[in-house]
Amino acid sequence: MVFDLKWTVKTTDIAFKALNREQIVNHFQRNAQVTTKVGLTRNLRSLKWFDSVDTDEFFPRSYDLHDPEELFDFVEDFKIVCAEALVKKYLADPAGCTDGQGNPLGDSASDVAHLACLALDAHIKNCLADNLDDDPADDFKLSPDEWSVILGEPCPVFARDTSDGSLPG
């Protein structure tokens, strides 16, 4: 390989072991811990073990979707954000309110907005719960069919499986 600088799109296009000392490339080996979103997320989360830093204050929410627990959290967060958006749309324009896919809700807008409010109420109660083992909002949990009405598409259904830490589906 004869070059001074090699610029590539992918790290896999570089034969790192064959590089001479004076050759420069635009990638580094084994840098996924800081250059990928999941690597950076994992490292920032482990920062709490070394310093009293709340990474949520300076790094946006992110999830490792290969981790079943985080996939579940992502889906739950997605549903809550959709419910919040629907309520905001309903408050701004009840007659023109749409579901998560932009489909007009028409006469059912107030019923769907009420479902979204129930979901948000349950979420707030869960966030304020003192005992994380108890779920104070069990009476207000929406069914997958009710979530589908809010989302405007079939609701992704996941349940935490405590036996092995994995999620079905």
List the helices and strands and how they pair.
Layout lengths: L4 E2 L17 E2 L6 H4 L1 H10 L21 H25 L16 H20 L15 H8 L18
Parallel strand pairs: 1-2
Helix pairs in contact: 3-4, 4-5
Helicity level, as a percent range?
25-40%
Note the main sheet: 2 strands, parallel
How much of the sequence lies in strands comes to: under 5%
Order of helices and strands: EEHHHHH
Alpha-carbon Rg, integer: 23 Å
Which strands sit side by side, in order, in the main sheet?
1-2
Anisotropy-based shape: elongated
Count of discrete alpha- or pi-helical segments spanning 4 or more residues = 5
> How many beta strands in the DSSP annotation?
2
Low-confidence stretches: 165-169
* Helix-and-strand structural type: mainly alpha
Mean pLDDT: 83
Distance, first to last CA: 48 Å
List keywords for this structure.
single chain; 169 residues; mainly alpha; 2 domains; two-stranded parallel sheet; 40% helix; elongated; disordered C terminus
Please summarize what this structure is:
By secondary structure, this protein is an all-alpha fold. The chain has helices at residues 32-35, 37-46, 68-92, 109-128, 144-151, and strands at residues 5-6, 24-25. It folds into two domains: 5-57, no CATH class; 68-151, no CATH class.
Verbal overview:
The chain has 169 residues and is mainly α. The chain folds into two domains: 5-57, no CATH class; 68-151, no CATH class. It is 40% helix and 2% strand. The chain has a two-stranded parallel sheet. Helix 3 crosses helix 4 (109-128) and helix 4 packs across helix 5 (144-151). The protein is elongated and about 70 Å long. The chain starts with a strand and ends in an 18-residue tail after the last helix. Mean pLDDT is 83; it is low at 165-169.
